[in-house]
Design a protein that fits this description.
Number of helices of chain B: 9
Distance between the termini of chain A: 34 Å
Number of helices of chain A: 18
Structural class of chain A: alpha/beta
Oligomer: heterodimer
Structural class of chain B: alpha/beta
Distance between the termini of chain B: 21 Å
Helix content of chain A: 40-55%
Order of helices and strands of chain B: HHHHEHEHEHEHEH
Largest sheet of chain B: 5 strands, parallel
CATH topology of the largest domain in chain B: Rossmann fold
Number of strands of chain B: 5
CATH architecture of the largest domain in chain B: 3-Layer(aba) Sandwich
Chain lengths: 420, 220
């Protein structure tokens, strides 16, 4: 893929767009309300290809994603290739936690996560004692077929002197060697994937468009809940395994912070996208939230802020009752993206603390008309932007896959019509 | 509760207060050591679940309590059920039959499972046909089982069209008037209800129970 030299005009456009986002973060209203663009399988609809092709065909996905960015001219966009063209790397690792087009769902369906217990309650102790060992022996072989054979690896902690040498014998095991080769092959595919994604990002930057985030992460509680214990397992842990749960969450926070800072610095973009799954009002009591969920995430955000990063949590579902709690963060350092939380209420509570992002309703975007979209944008402009809110306009959680293209056009048009 | 003795009242309280270990030990003792009628023990569990449901409705309890309550009930039932020697005609009368499933294309089931559990403990007979349920499966199950209410669940936005298609198929099959249709899931709202042609939507399990009770003419 050709990465053009950035022209002076494109540089000016890039800098102007990026400054709008940074102004919002700093709680200063920019010259106009910025609009960001986040899309996954909607791009397949837009480009007239199948969801499967979007995941597998690097070149087509790059072309369609670029076409969309050039048509809508967002102030910032997601790294659209990295977020979509993952079919080959899923296949290479034989990924077990998802079903994706051609692997469990139809060619025109989005991928779906399989909520399962990927770590049993009796494994908390192993996980806490030696997390790397747990990953190598248990977790990775469980979630990636390519790692089946890694359970043959020895326990490294405790090895010493000659034992550290003779202890290597399991590495001669044929099953381990076969697995190692599969993992190395998978790593080659991951390298190709990252190259394609990176090329697209650079090209889109050169054309004048910043990425809205350079890296992504998870909240400590959510990572344990979603990817280890499973939803119902985690909910039972709140009663049955409180101490080990809190210990695991704290350990996960430390690893997440280290990984996230490294990834964000490597990307050169300070904004860290953090989709939030378990904070919604209905998912736990205020007391549970303030005991199990919020302290670790707040600390993580503070540590990211201290590393000059900008956390951008996407508060999924309705978090209206959490607003007063999640307000406790240094002002001018974060972007809070809300899905179903009432944005007007969020502005009232958080307007002097964080930039806001969102939140056109998925039901309206998918089943409504361009006139409905226009009215919804006007509502946000009248009640948030025009009242001083530092709002980055966006769909509730990115463009819903089924959204008619004319409704997306209506969103961008209405933003310019009502807010500069 | 005047018709319960101190031990029975203790079981209800422990269950309702999420004291799992104590409640399970006591239920086990009552069933296996004291030979107490398993139907009586299950009735005490049901009373505890009523309290859990009420606390959920009042905003004191949330999803984790419902999940743990379901687990406690299941564990006690596993001991109690083999001990039940039920005479014919003694089965408790149910408020109505609810067929529930996640619509085709969608594999999510947590919300659906919680709704099924809440309907069950509130006196409904529930048949869960699982996730990614094809339109024809709904129609076949409805024909075979004759439910009073059909619940369509879906978490993804693709479920809007799957729900619309499923409900349209009920119309085409000439069966739409025989039952009520409720929909639910993360993205469901009045706009989606209108789009799909469902009779009602609910944002949580308590609302699903209320809808069903209203339709069956039972006190909500």
């Amino acid at each position: 893929m050709n990465i053009p030299e950035q022209t002076p005009e494109a540089k000016l456009a890039y800098d102007t767009r990026w400054q709008r986002i940074m102004d919002c973060v700093a709680l200063k209203q920019p010259d106009r309300m910025p609009v960001s663009f986040y899309a996954t399988f909607w791009l397949a609809k837009y480009g007239g290809i199948s969801c499967k092709d979007l995941m597998y065909d690097y070149e087509k996905t790059k072309e369609i994603a670029e076409r969309a960015v050039l048509e809508f001219e967002p102030d910032a966009c997601l790294g659209l290739v990295g977020a979509n063209a993952m079919g080959r790397i899923f296949e290479a690792v034989d990924y077990k936690q998802l079903k994706w087009p051609g692997h469990g769902v139809g060619d025109n369906q989005p991928y779906q996560y399989l909520d399962r217990e990927y770590m049993k309650p009796e494994e908390f102790s192993d996980f806490l004692r030696d997390p790397t060992g747990f990953y190598l022996h248990t977790y990775l072989p469980r979630i990636f077929g390519a790692f089946e054979g890694f359970e043959k690896l020895p326990d490294f902690p405790g090895m010493f002197y000659f034992r550290a040498i003779t202890g290597l014998r399991p590495l001669a095991n044929p099953e381990f060697r076969k697995a190692l080769q599969r993992v190395l092959d998978a790593a080659d595919e991951v390298d190709r994937f990252m190259t394609h994604a990176g090329q697209w990002n650079k090209r889109i930057n050169a054309l004048g468009f910043p990425l809205i985030n350079g890296s992504a992460s998870g909240a400590p509680y959510d990572v344990i809940a979603d990817y280890f214990r499973g939803a119902t397992g985690m909910m039972k842990d709140l009663f049955r395994n409180k101490d080990k749960l809190l210990e695991s969450i704290d350990m996960m926070r430390q690893h997440l912070v280290k990984m996230t800072i490294a990834n964000a610095k490597a990307s050169g973009n300070p904004i860290v996208f953090i989709p939030i799954h378990w904070a919604p009002d209905a998912f736990m009591s205020p007391k549970q939230f303030e005991t199990f969920w919020w302290p670790s995430f707040r600390q993580m955000m503070i540590e990211l802020i201290d590393a000059d990063l900008i956390p951008m949590p996407l508060w999924e579902s309705d978090c209206t009752k959490r607003l007063e709690v999640i307000k406790d963060i240094p002002p001018g350092k974060c972007i809070y993206w809300f899905e179903r939380t009432d944005m007007v209420k969020a502005f009232e509570v958080l307007g002097d603390v964080v930039a806001l992002r969102g939140n056109l309703s998925p039901s309206m975007m998918t089943t409504g008309t361009p006139q409905d979209v226009d009215a919804a944008v006007k509502h946000l402009v009248d009640n948030v932007w025009n009242k001083g809110g530092n709002l980055i306009l966006e769909h509730a959680f990115g463009t819903p896959d089924e959204t008619p293209v004319e409704n997306v056009r209506a969103m961008f048009k209405a933003a310019r019509k009502y807010a500069g | 509760m005047s018709d319960t003795n101190q031990q029975e009242q203790q079981l209800i309280e422990w269950l309702a207060d999420m004291n799992e270990d104590e409640a399970f030990a006591l239920a086990k003792k009552m069933l296996l050591e004291e030979g107490i009628d398993p139907l009586r023990v299950m009735d005490l569990c049901r009373r505890a679940m009523d309290i859990v449901g009420k606390r959920f409705e009042e905003g004191e309890y949330f999803l984790p309590e419902l999940v743990l309550a379901g687990e406690m009930l299941e564990n006690i039932s596993a001991i109690a059920k083999p001990l039940i020697k039920q005479a014919p005609g003694e089965a408790p009368k149910k408020l109505g039959k609810v067929l529930i499933g996640t619509v085709h294309g969608d594999l999510h089931d947590i919300g659906k499972n919680i709704v099924s559990f809440m309907l069950d403990i509130n006196g409904f007979e529930v048949k869960d046909i699982g996730v990614d349920a094809p339109v024809q499966t709904f129609i076949d199950e409805i024909n075979a089982w004759q439910p009073d209410v059909v619940g369509l669940s879906g978490f993804l936005t693709l479920a809007f069209d799957s729900m619309k298609e499923t409900i349209a198929a009920f119309d085409q099959a000439g069966m739409r008037a025989k039952f009520k249709v409720m929909i639910g899931g993360g993205q469901i709202d009045e706009q989606v209800r209108n789009y799909t042609g469902a009779d009602a939507f609910g944002v949580n399990a308590v609302e699903a129970v209320k809808l069903c009770k209203n339709w069956m003419g039972a006190a909500a």
